[in-house]
Amino acid sequence: MNSVVEVRRLTKTYKTTTALDDVSLSIDEDSIYGLLGRNGAGKTTLMSILTAQNFATSGDVEVFGEDPYENARVLNRMCFVRESQKYPDDSNARHALTNARLFFPHWDQDFADQLVSDFDLPLKTPIKKLSRGQQSAVGVIIGLASRAEITFFDEPYLGFDAVARQTFYDRLIADYAEHPRTIVLSSHLIDEVADLIEKVIVIDHGRIIMDETTEEVRSRAVNVVGDADAINRLVAGREVIHRESLGRVASVTMLGHLSNADRELIDDANLDLTPVSLQQLVVRSTQTDLAESSAAETDSRSLQS
User: CA–CA distance from 266 to each of 175, 187, 244 (Å)?
Assistant: First the structure.
């Protein structure tokens, strides 16, 4: 598969803070990525640099094989929609959509009109007077209707309620099926987007700690439900990352692969294997990385003292 983004040893520092620390990655064409991590992990900084809205301290970025900075050939093939998108004070949704139509060469006005109806978006009300959810709808409509070859969504849908978010997910996946392109979703709602994303990139403290397909990430762990005593025998000596119990029934997520003996125990005890929560795996990975970093810092201080 061809890559549309290549990042090599990218670092971004702000005075004493390192937002991105020697980041290298590739983003493939016609794929949906989940860009995941905690607040302040470096997700927005990375997307801002890729879309030439910020500058790297060091390292190289290529989008469609070129430097994106002040490069119209590259920039009009990308769309970056962020949660804190700014618009002129007197601008309304109609103005924003009209301007977007002029900028993006693959803009689909019929799709934009359908989305305006789906999200019940007032077109004549100044954007600054819209509700947070309606402001989110402006960005989401631009991101979807632009049909840009690469679209970055930096959590612009946080103002949506559950129904509006589901509408966004449904419209995104349906349009992606008909018009494949590269989509990067940055989200804290990991389990909500888990069924949409094909590849997972996790940033923690400015470093890439996971860059795999969703299937590969899920294969790191298994979730088992059934008799608590049988499950306790199964997980003995294993690393458990999540456990729930109700009476004699337990649900446990544990790291590692199942052996033949494990599968025999599962069959004999009539235990059920259920899908693993991507959110649990990502949260566990960032917690582990934080613990390892803290331990390394402690060891370093001990050596220096």
Answer: 41, 35, 18
Predicted confidence (pLDDT) per residue in 170-197, tens digit: 999 999 999 999 999 998 889 899 999 9
What is the token pair recorded at 149?
């070859």
Q: Tokens representing 250?
A: 């337990």
Do 102 and 64 lie in one domain? The reply is yes
CA 146, CA 115: separation in Å to the nearest integer?
Answer: 12
- Decide if pLDDT at 39 tops 70: yes
Percent of the chain with pLDDT over 70: 93
CA contacts within 13 A on the Cβ side of 210: 29
Q: Indicate the number of domains in the chain.
A: 2
CA distances 8 to 139, 152, 292, Å, are 30, 19, 24
- Examine residue 285 and state whether it is found in any structural domain, yes or no: no
* Cα–Cα distance, 189 to 222 (Å, whole number): 21
Length of the chain: 305
